[in-house]
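G., the chain you wanted modeled:
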Amino acid sequence: MPQVEQSIEIEAPPSAVFALIAEQPERMPEWWSLFELQERVTPPPTAVGSVSRYVFNLMGIRIKGEHQVLQMENAQHLVIKTLSGINGMFHFSLAETETGTRLTVLMAYTLPGSVLGQRINQHTIEQQNERDLRDGLETLKKLVERETQGI
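Predicted structure as tokens:
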């Protein structure tokens, strides 16, 4: 299963970063461009077992599905498993630092070959996913820092 991992330092407490990622999943498209849509199926608050619906856009190919929270430790760790669409897991790990939070995101996935196999190759997809995750984390950093600093 291919995987992409990226980390970033965010000048905000882990609780603020975690709140945006875990407690406001519908805001994911604001910071991660791969997601066109992210909406709750299970009402808030987010907990183990919560389900969300998503539309994932990979290089112009839209993949719809649902995912579920498998593990959740407040302000430390969140694991989400796709239930349909792509086969994947998303691990969000947060660690407190002197200046705020170190966020590491690991995305492991298997793409539906029948949908993508003839249009783009696996290496191209992996490179694009790395760029999209890196860009998403940069956008998340700016968003969280702006919101926590009241700017």
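The mean pLDDT is 90.

Shout if anything looks off.
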